[in-house]
Specification:
With 399 residues, the protein is of the alpha/beta class. It has two domains: 6-180, Flavin prenyltransferase-like (Rossmann fold, 3-Layer(aba) Sandwich); 189-398, 3-Layer(aba) Sandwich (Rossmann fold). Helices cover 33% and strands 24% of the residues. It contains 13 helices and 21 strands. Helix 1 runs parallel beside helix 2 and helix 1 crosses helix 8. It binds ligand PMT. The site of ligand PMT has 28 residues, from helix 9, helix 11 and strand 16. Residues 193, 195, 211-216, 254, 273-277, 279, 306, 308-310, 325-328, 340, 352, 360-362 line the site of ligand PMT.
Length: 399
């Protein structure tokens, strides 16, 4: 899939820069045209001569070419590219990218690039775990950049931990897969629910849950990146969709989510029900703030059941439509998931368990098993929510 693709390979100043040579070789071998852009610190680790010999192009590092004074246009390179890969990406470059510090050619190119950007961090374990790195990566991720998560292993400091740049073969695989799946959902209309619902108690309080929307939004972004037209019905979350093919419908409560889903379901080919919908809502929500009694007596709140949105759509499903549901479990996981799959008339269910570390609410990762109506089950390892989204869409495509 990389044949003829224009790739910018950004290299920064980390010991893992030696792996960039293999990455460059693999990209060229796969038929890509590669333009290397290296930071001044990067050149301390690897020479431009090696890189230009392998890429067949002069390596760009400075804004001006020293001997001719020729200006290197970061805008032109940014527009030329089908993808930009920054490997290794140091904590410093990640920080600059997240904060628009355009003081070298690599960061200015990044800021001008219209193509998808893949970032492979590499640094020592403490730098990797530092809140500033975590925050900067989260910012970059929230802008739609693809983070190729670093592996755990021996680091340049000889310490063991998370921060090893992903292997070049795997980075090429990620790129290859990106281009391979690019238009696989062209022409499909997909309805996706995400986030929690808030069930109002009074003007200042609600019943809710810990859903951040990350899983549902990852599915929406991945589907849109593959060419689908997405309607994202979302409960209250802190994130926003980025892809222009995502139409966001904001809702608060389960009843509002149901109404939005009913409006959009008939015109959809697939529905993916990822929202953590409150099963119950207060029977009455007070119009003014409920006051605490003087004596601190217990307060009773009567709850009534919310409609089951997935089951409602499951009943309405016409031939050719597919519905994927989620099952968030804490025990008896498989039986509960299969029960939901059948009861709600779904075509597949994505089981995630709160017993698995890194799975479920608020994390950037998830660990899922996908069970189809035909009884086929696939257990996946812990992956980023973007990769999980990809697995879900691949399964729907197979169905
Ligand atoms: O948002 P994140 O922080 O990234 O977290 C992701 C997630 C944990 C919320 C997500 O991975 C997930 O598991 N979503 C489903 C949560 C849930 O409500 O599961 P459930 O087992 O209670 O519901 C089963 C299915 O029925 C789900 O598809 C749900 O959307 C749907 N449902 C449930 C209740 C209801 N009244 N209406 C529904 O449509």
């Amino acid at each position: 899939m990389l044949k003829g693709k224009h790739i910018i390979l950004g290299i920064t100043g980390g010991i893992a820069a030696y792996k960039s040579v293999s990455l460059l070789r693999l990209l060229v071998k796969a038929g890509a045209e590669v333009q290397v852009v290296i930071t001044p610190a990067g050149k301390e680790f690897i020479t431009p001569v090696t890189l230009s010999a392998l890429s067949g192009k002069p390596v760009i590092s400075e804004f001006f070419t020293a001997n001719t004074g020729q200006w290197n246009s970061h805008v032109d390179i940014g527009l030329w590219a089908d993808a930009m890969v920054i490997a290794p990406a140091t904590a410093s470059t990640i920080g600059k990218m997240a904060n628009g510090v355009a003081d070298n050619m690599l960061v200015t190119t990044y800021l001008s690039a219209k193509a998808p950007v893949f970032i492979a961090p590499a640094m020592d374990l403490d730098m990797m775990a530092h809140p500033s790195t975590t925050r900067n990566l989260a910012t970059l991720r929230s802008w739609g950049n693809h983070i190729i998560e670093p592996a755990t292993g021996e680091l340049a400091s000889h310490l063991m931990g998370r921060g090893r740049m992903e292997e070049p073969e795997r980075i090429v695989e990620v790129l290859d897969r990106f281009f391979d799946t690019k238009d696989t959902l062209k022409g499909k209309k997909i309805l996706i629910t995400a986030g929690p619902t808030h069930e109002k108690i009074d003007p200042v309080r609600f019943i809710g849950n810990y859903s951040s929307g990350k899983m549902g939004y990852a599915i929406a972004e991945e589907a849109a990146a593959r060419g689908a037209e997405v309607t994202l019905v979302s409960g209250p979350v802190e994130i926003a969709p980025r892809h222009e093919s995502i139409t966001l419908v904001k809702v608060e409560s389960a009843l509002e989510m149901l109404a939005a889903c009913e409006e959009h379901f008939d015109s959809s080919d697939w529905a993916v029900m990822c929202a953590a919908v409150a099963d119950y809502r207060p029977e009455h929500s007070a119009s003014s703030k409920i006051k605490r009694g003087d004596k601190g007596d217990p307060m009773e709140l009567r709850l009534v059941a919310n409609p089951d949105i997935a089951a409602t759509l499951g009943k309405r499903k016409r031939s050719g439509q597919l519905i994927a549901g989620f099952a968030l479990e804490t025990d008896n996981e498989t039986d509960n998931a299969i029960g939901k799959l059948n009861r709600k008339n779904l075509d597949m269910i994505v089981l995630n368990s709160l017993r698995d570390k890194g799975a479920g609410f608020r994390t950037d990762t998830n660990k899922v098993s996908i069970i189809t109506r035909g009884g086929e089950r696939t257990d996946y390892p812990l992956k980023s929510k973007t990769e999980v989204a990809s697995d879900i869409l691949d399964t729907l495509l197979k169905l």
